[in-house]
Structure formats: structure tokens, C-alpha cells
Amino acid sequence: MGRMGFSPKHACLTDEKDPNRQKITNLTSCLLVSCQLNLHCEVRPPFSSKFPLPFFPSLPIGTKATKMSTAFSAANFSTQSFPLNHTSTTSHDSPLVFAKPTSQFLRSTRKLRLSSSSKLNLNRRSGTVVAVSDVVKQKKSKSTPTLLITKEEGLELYEDMVLGRAFEDMCAQMYYRGKMFGFVHLYNGQEAVSTGFIKLLKQQDSVVSTYRDHVHALSKGVPARAVMSELFGKTTGCCRGQGGSMHMFSREHNLLGGFAFIGEGIPVATGAAFTSKYKREVLKEADCDHVTLAFFGDGTCNNGQFFECLNMAALWKLPIVFVVENNLWAIGMSHLRSTSDPQIYKKGPAFGMPGIHVDGMDVLKVREVAKEAIGRARRGEGPTLVECETYRFRGHSLADPDELRDPAEKAHYAARDPITALKKYLTENNLASDAELKAIDKKIDEVVEDAVEFADESPVPPRSQLLENVFADPKGFGIGPDGRYRCEDPKFTEGTAHV
Amino acid sequence: MLGVVRKKMLGQSLLKIRPAVSVLRSYSSSAKHMTVRDALNSALDEEMSADQKVFLMGEEVGEYQGAYKISKGLLEKYGPERVLDTPITEAGFAGIAVGAAYHGLKPVVEFMTFNFSMQAIDHIINSAAKSNYMSAGQMSVPIVFRGPNGAAAGVGAQHSQCYAAWYASCPGLKVLTPYSSEDARGLLKAAIRDPDPVVFLENELLYGESFSVSDEVLDSSFCLPIGKAKIERVGRDVTITAFSKMVGHALKAAEILEKDGIDAEVINLRSIRPLDRSTINASVRKTNRLITAEEGFPQHGVGAEICASVVEESFAYLDAPVERIAGADVPMPYAANLERLAVPQVEDIVRAAKRACYRSVPLAAAA
């Protein structure tokens, strides 16, 4: 199984035995493969002054003329071992030897190597790929490091991720006690992606998700009580119990679902982004800069709707960020077995938008990439495709026995738990003390307990709710035998759904 | 009845003359006439000018002026931000329109034919029709999916299916099937103003047909209620329900039956979901016999639903079994003579009416 190979310790995880499995050794933690010429030159301005090095395109010198081809060669390149978590600040692997940023960039004649210490060229002059971790490492070595986040931000991120984790764990418990039913898909392990992206949004920005949407809802601001009640099927849920686990909607928080079909949310998200542009151009709301985030998985990236929307979003320059939560598995189908070219971020430039790969187990890296991608969208520069390498600690759903995944792989990613990572970062950089973090843990436990109690005590929907909300205009139920619209009959909702 | 005859004669003479001007308002006769195409175009035009949130999206709706010229002139008038030519991505743009509708815009999505809507059916059903329910009223979807439906002439199996029954079985959708220009104008305006997803099934062969329209119809605030059928021809002996093109056939059949002393009542359903069961049942209680006519496949079709409804509510009033006239249970053949056999003709309706009135030997459905 790919993705490994960036530490000698984990070299065993690369599948030496099965040559057919493509060894994706490494996708660099931040690689922007861009086919936009101007990005080569203008890498500095959009970035914050915290970073002396831009972390966008790693195209070698002289690539301007052939940007597309070198974009690909750079991508091939990026499959060199490039350790993702090698810094002490944000990763949890043992420190590894690797690429010092000053090495020369070599062209794509280099072969893929697995746990090698081959260096990824980081040519600074023409715009380079620099892992955030790299920069952070550099920063650490200076005497006065500038940190990626402030204390408040750090605590906010920590709290959000712990809320996601605690909530999902509680969901599992409740499911096995029979309080929750149907399909429940848990997000454990992927919290860095949700927190890293959604915490940068405003309330008017929209989020569209898949069936694995509890934590997206929580990050976007839907109260834990409302989500838990919805899962229990109670009338106090965010969708009054009518949606369920897979269909979380919130008008107030602009959470546009919750879709069970793979790929279904992507066009809807693209439409929400279209609305933002339409409001600006046609309805003349000149300051409308709402951004939409579409979250979906690796399996979806083989679906037609994904490509259709990449095309239209880039064509119409819509303010959307396509966030791929690549957790390597679509139920039991490994990403490598189902995809001809498993490097999803490369699909972005094929449609005219930047494609970035980021370590999705590290909330700070995700946040940095998200800032840029969301900033791009807000400025009207168009869509971005961000591939977050992440992992789900549990099975696909609570009904999935999760037998196909290699325990060594699971152990590997468990060691990269995003919450533990952030905790380590906060404590090591003296942003927060252990006591403060424990206090947050306790507070979240109470929030989740309270949510469960609230949901338990809430009433189930009344019978009359069955026929409500089918139409916004209930005259859609038609005319009854007495010649009047059915909805005007006060006893209409007391019957069965048969009209 | 006389009105029907007059309309028919005028219609025929107009078809022969067929001016090239897009809106037929220049006749000096007292009744004004309008083709269905112009009716749809004017309805779109008026709704787009009344509400800035309405926009049109589809293949060839802009620069090509519409695959069937329904959106002629709209690009020039409203610009490319509101009349969008899309790439060939039904699933993609139907979903984009739904996403836009979630945020309060009012998209009108054109499918070049409803056969292509099958590529987008996930969005029509799952993200449009069901969303208001799944979100408990938070996300209403004021979207219209429109386009030609049903058989055209010689276009083969993949371009000739009627989707009325498929969409009408889904809760959360409203399905409308206009026949005349008045229907087209009124129902399209109602659909665009409606806060729910509407599937608007037109018919390609009707686009060029001209109908007389009153001044009330031409008024820009004209709107027809969704869910009410229209009795096109009042009768006493047998009820014929039809929608879209079949209404024309039913009216012709009624005239032929008239000569044989059978006075048929023709109901133009206009709205398949919600079905106007009240009008249908009231009519059946009056005439005691029912023929349902549709173009689509017979099994699980619109006629089946009407028959079930009548059996449930007016069983005691039926004097004869309900006759269903539908398209043949075969994919549409190409050869012209076979196509004629696969689509209901006027004679089929006449024969069915006579069977229902016990005037002829029962035959297995010939079509």
C-alpha cells in the first residue's frame, strides 16, 4: 500500500511483495502542480510574510514555455520520497533524514524510490515546493520562531477536532446500544481536514459534504445537540429527524448537505459557488464573495460528475474549493486498485486549475493550504483542487467489519493521529498547557453527554410530520375529492401518506 | 364543441400559412393565435424580466437560440450570465442548478430532450425532489426542468421515450404536461414561480402548432394553477383523459365519435403530479366510462394510476372496464410504418371508446 516509504521504519509498509500495486511512495506534502503561468512568477504576493518561501509550484527553471508537460514531470517527481511529517513540530514519526531544501532539482529521469533519502528539488528561484513542515522546521531552527497559529486559534482548532472525535465515538456507542440506526459513517481520523478547512470560513460560506458529514456539520457550527438529535431521529434534530445521518442540512449555517450518492454533492456545491458569482454579476451584490467547499472522497474522483464539475468550475471560474479526503479506501476498494492514476491532485491542472496535495493528518498544513485555496476563490481567481491524504480509523460505516485493511497500515496512521499531533505542537511551542487541553477535553465530553441526554429526552416526530415539507408549496399534494386543495383540509396530515 | 371545431379549422389554415415572424400577433381576425413555441418563449421572456433570479441553463440555449428555438432571442436580451450555454454534462449542470436553487436562485434547466435527463435523474430526484423533505423545509428547490418529451418523428428508440410516469411517481416533484399555447404559457409561468422542483414535459411535435389565445392569456401575469385539469370538451357518454399530444388526438377522436352518436368528454390533464383526481372522478361519475390515453409505455403508466384512482373512488359508477391506450410495449422503432403502430393513433382512441360503450367487438389492443 502506497503512501509510505518516507521513513526507514515504515519501509515495510510498502508492498514489496506485490509488484502490481503501484507504489506511491510519496506525494509531497504541499505540491502545487499548476498550469497557470502566472503562478510561477507571482508566488510571493499572496503568501503571508510568515513564509519566506512560497509553497507553490515546484517547476524547474525554464519551464514556463512548457508548463503543462513540466507540471507533469514535476508531479512525477513529487512521487519521490518526501517525508511528510519529518519535523518535530507537526509530525509524530521519528525524525527522518531527508531532503534539505537546498539540493538541486533533478528532472524526471529520476526513478521512484521508496524510503530513499533522495531529495526533492526545491528550487527557490522559480517558485518551489516546500512542505509546510519544512518551513516550520526551518523556522524552528531560528531563534525566534514564528508559529503558524496563535494560542486562540490553536485552542479553537483543538477543541473542534476533539469535538469531532468525541462525538463520533459517542455515535458508535449509541449505535451499538440501538439508539441510532441505519447507515452511520464515522469520521475518526479525518478531523484535520474538516477543522483545517471549515474553521477558515464565514457563516455565509457554504459546505457540501457526503454521507460522512457529522463532523463537517459540527465544524460549520451546527450545535452538537441538533446533530445528535437528528441521528436519533428526533424532532429536535437539525432536519427534524427527516434527514438522518447522511442528510445533514442547515440553512442557518449554510451546510448544504449531506448526500448519500457519491459525487452528488459536487455539482450542488458547484451550483452554490455559481450563485455567489451570479449574485455578484447579475444581482449586483458587489461584495458577495462567498466561497463553497465541496468535500468528497477518493472513490468519487473516478466518478463522471467530479470531472464534469471540475470542467465547469474552471470554465466559469467559480469560487469553489474541491477538497478530496483521500483516505485510500472506498468501503473495501483500495484507491490503488480502482484508479488508473492514483495521484488525484494531478486531475486539477488537466482542467485548468491548481492541484495541491497536502498531508491531511496535520491540521496546520491543511490550514495553510486551505487559506491559500479559499483566498484564491474569494479573490475570484477560480477553483482549486486540494487532495488531503488522510485516513479513517474506523471502517467505512458502523456496519463495516473492516477486514480488508492491513493492520500495519492502520497502526501507521494511528501514530499520526491529528489530535495528538496538534496537542504536541501546542504544548511544545508553549501555546497551551496540558491542563488547558485537558480542560477542553473535559468540556467537550460534557457537551457530547449533554447532546446525548438532550437527544434522548427529545420527542419523536409526531405523525403529522410525515406529510410535511414534501413541497415548499403544499398545494403540490393536489386537489382532493371535495374539489379543494388537500393541504387546506385540516385533517390532511392525520391520514397516511397515500393521497 | 363548436369552439373546438373552430379552433381546429383555424389551426389547420394557420399551419398552411405559417408566417416566419416569431410572435403571431399580427392577424386581423378577432382571435389571436400563438404557436406553442412562441408561448414558451414569451413565458420565459416575461418571467426572466420580472425576476432577476430566474436564469436559463442548458445545451444550445444561448447562441444557437435553443435546440428547438424555444429560447430564441433570450441571449441577446439577457446576456450570457443569465442564459448559459453549458457543456454536454447533464448530471453536472442539473446539479449546479440545484445548488443554485438551494441558495434562492430560480434556474430553468433545459434538457435537449427528456431522454437526456436520465443522465441527470439522480439530481432531479435525489437532490431536487427530496431535499425539501430531507432538510425539513430548510432547502427548498425552486427549479424547473423543461424540455421536449415523448416521441417525435422517426428519431428512434433512444430519443422517443415518455417520462411522465417515471417522474410522476416521485414525491416532491410536480410534473406538468401542457398541450395548447395557453397551457404552455400558463403552466410554464406557474412552474417558474413555484417554489418546488417542477418537471415540465413539452412535446416537440406540438411546438409548431398554433392555438388561439385570449387576451387574458397574453397578459404577463397570466398563470394557471398547478394540479387542475381542464375539460377541453364537455360530453356525456365517455370520458377520455389525455395529456400533451394525446389531447389533440382525443379531440379528433371525439369528433369522429360524435358522428356515431357517442358524446365524449375530453379532459386535458395538464398536471400529472399532482393528478387532478377530483376532476377525473367527477367526470367518470357523470359518464360512467373511462378511456385513458398516453404516449408512454403501458406498464406502470399514467393510465394505470388514473385507472387505480377511479377504481378506488368511483368503482360503483363504472359501467365498463377502464380502457388504457398507451404506446406499444416496445422500444420505439425507426421505420415510419412501425412507428405509427407504436404510438397511439386517433383510431385507437375511437375504437377504445366504442368498446367502452359496447359498440364493437372487443379487440386486444392493436397498438
Give the tags.
heterodimer; A: 499 residues; alpha/beta; six-stranded mixed β-sheet; two-stranded antiparallel ribbon; 15 helices; 10 strands; 34% helix; B: 367 residues; seven-stranded mixed β-sheet; five-stranded mixed β-sheet; 14 helices; globular; disordered N terminus
Number of beta-strand segments of chain A:
10
The radius of gyration of chain B is 20 Å
Give the largest interface pair and sizes.
A-B, 60 and 60 residues
Shape of chain B: globular
Based on DSSP secondary structure assignment, what is the total number of beta strands of chain B? Answer: 14
What's the number of helices of chain B? Answer: 14
* Overall mean pLDDT of chain B: 90
How large is the radius of gyration of chain A?
24 Å
Instruction: Report the oligomer.
Output: heterodimer
Helix/strand structural class of chain B: alpha/beta
Instruction: Give the overall pLDDT of chain A as a whole number.
Output: 77
Q: Which bin fits the share of residues in helices of chain A?
A: 25-40%
What does the model show?
The complex is a heterodimer of chains A (499) and B (367). Chain A has helices spanning 37-41, 67-77, 132-141, 151-176, 191-198, 214-220, 224-232, 265-281, 304-315, 335-338, 347-350, 363-378, 407-414, 418-428, 434-457, and strands spanning 31-33, 206-208, 249-250, 255-256, 292-297, 320-326, 329-330, 333-334, 355-359, 384-389. By secondary structure, chain A is an alpha/beta fold. In chain A, helix 12 (363-378) links the parallel strand 9 and strand 10. In chain A, helix 5 packs parallel to helix 6 (214-220) and helix 8 (265-281) packs parallel to helix 9. Chain A is globular and about 75 Å long. Residues 1-143 of chain A have low confidence and may be disordered. In chain B, 38% of the residues lie in helices and 16% in strands. Chain B has helices at residues 2-17, 36-50, 74-78, 90-102, 121-129, 131-134, 164-168, 181-193, 215-218, 245-259, 277-287, 302-314, 336-342, 346-356; strands spanning 32-35, 54-58, 83-85, 106-110, 144-148, 174-176, 198-202, 210-213, 230-233, 238-242, 264-268, 271-273, 290-293, 323-325. Chain B is globular and about 60 Å long. The two termini of chain B are 28 Å apart. At the A-B interface, strand 3, helix 8 and helix 9 of A face helix 4, helix 5, helix 6 and helix 11 of B. Chain B: Keywords: Oxidoreductase, Pyruvate, Thiamine pyrophosphate.
